[in-house]
Each structure stands twice: as structure tokens, then as C-alpha cells.
Amino acid sequence: MSTANESSESATASLLTTGVTAGGSVKTRTPHQRITFTTKRRKMSRRANLIGICGVSGLCILLLIATTQHRPLPASLASSSAAVGAVGSGSLGGNAVVGSYSSAGNGFGAGSVYAGDRFNRAMPQQTAVVYNVTATIADVLAAQRAKIVVEMEYFDYPSGRFGVDAEKLADLTPETEGTPVRSLIVASWRSGSTFLGDILNAMPGNYYHYEPLLNFGIKQIRDPDEQELALKNLKNLLFCDYNNQMEDFLEYGKMHTYLFEHNERLWTVCKEYPHYCWRPKFLTRFCKLFPLQSMKTVRLRLSTAERLLEDKRSLWLLQWKWLRVVKAVY
């Protein structure tokens, strides 16, 4: 039995290693020919796999392109597009203009407003917003005045304490010939003054002048001429006068918006009405709505800051001499 199986296997092996010619004669393949034949089959298989992979990849790319071209607009952009030329949805009403505001750098610089075809090609990393362009300055001031009334609803007025006789909101707002409580923080760098300024800014009805001398550079002002100009600017701001030669300050703010960003109440309005944000006429009237006025600077020397107290209008000026903060490290 085993002999028969061995004979069969030998016959099969001999058939695999031989071939039949056209004349019927048997031709035996050499080992070299068998290896060459196997190699060719492997190469053909690899080529077929490569062609298949390329074909599938190309098909996927075509499908991706077709899907992208027919993809609908996102809901945020679609709703903003529909708002162009329509009545604005803000509380003050009026027509709207669609634009874009970038959180990085100057949001109101050149090229930040898109309209028509330019809006349809809005750049990435920009968020569509709706600007109310028909609300007048009086409308904006009326809306802010109402917000301040709500903020100050439960405010504990001094009523004679701390030398301040104010008993109601009108006693503290410059708009109504009142005298606001003014706070000045004179500090040095890395002293915690920004933190203290933010605490004061958390008070209801506060208008915050953050580093109003930024346009003088990173230095303490020592030159006599610069000191006079710095004092003049500070007095103008403390008394809400943006019309008195404050052009350099406002131009600097346009390019460095963080000058206004720390003043949250003002910056909120600036984002909604950017066409009013840098206008002295608007800023002067807007500032006079607030019963509390605070300011923080690290560029003014104390000896110079003391001269602010000589102004008779500054009777209610609270001067904070924040010289140094000892920080515990745990």
C-alpha cells in the first residue's frame, strides 16, 4: 500500500517538473526556470496591487472634492448672510452689516469688515458678527444708562461716610453734574496692580482706565515735558474729556486694543458698535454715565502723581500707593 502511494507522489512531482511540447514530446523544466517563473508571478501580483491602491485613492479624492463643492454653509454663516441688509436683531433695532472680528490682535483694523462677495470668501479663524449701524450715539447711551441703573440698584451709597455725601446715582454721575468716586492706582511693574485694578473694575458702575500712559513706552516718565503731557492726559481721562488733544492716545488704542479691552463695559459696546468706539464725542459722553472711575498706571512716579491731588476737582480722588506686594510662595 505504501509503495503505491510513493509511486503516485513521484508521478505527481514528475508532472510538475515537466512539460509537453507541441509535438507531444515531454520537456523537463530546470530549477532556474521554475524560480524565474515564480518571480514573474510575484512581480505581476505586486503591480496589480499597486494599480488597485492607486485607483481606490483616486476615487476617494474625487468623492471628497465632489462632497466639498456641494457642502451647505454652516448655520452660523448662513444666518449671518441672511442678516445682510435686514433689520438688526439688537435691542436698539436698525439695519445690520455683517463683518468679522478676529480675537487675535486688532479686531477693528483694516480688512476686518466683509460685505457682499468679500463676505462669501471670509477667511478662516474669523467669527461672523452683526454690527448695528443705525443706532445713534443717544441710543447707545440710553441703553448703557439703563444697564448702570440695574447695576447700582442695590449699591450702598456713602451718604456722608468717607466724606462723600452721595445718596443716589445722580449724585455720582458727571452727566448729572455729580462727582464720581475716582480711584487711582500708582504702582510699579510686577507688583500686582493689574489684579487690584480688576478688583476695582468688578465694582458696579465702574469705568476703568487701564494703563492710560501706554503710548509713552515701557518706562517710568521722568522727562519734565513728558510729565506735563502725562498729567494732562490723566486729568482729561479722569474727568471724561476725550476731546482735549487726546488724538495720540486714541490712535495708539486703535492699534493696541488691549488699552480698552480691560474696560469691560466700554469694550462690550465697542464690539457691537465699532464705528463709535474711537470717537471722542462718544467716549466723553459714555464715560460721564459712570458713578465710579478707576485708573491704574505703572509709568508715573509718585512725586508726579501727587500733583493730581492739587486739582480742586479731585476732592473725592482716592489715591492708592501700591508700592510692593510681598507674595508668599507655598
UniProtKB/TrEMBL annotation:
Domain of life of the source: Eukaryota
A GO molecular function held by the record: N-acetylglucosamine 6-O-sulfotransferase activity
Keywords, comma-separated and alphabetical: Membrane, Transmembrane, Transmembrane helix
Transmembrane segments: 48-66
Protein name: Sulfotransferase domain-containing protein
GO biological process terms held by the UniProt record: N-acetylglucosamine metabolic process; sulfur compound metabolic process
SUPFAM superfamilies according to UniProt: P-loop containing nucleoside triphosphate hydrolases
InterPro entries: Gal/GlcNAc/GalNAc_ST, P-loop_NTPase
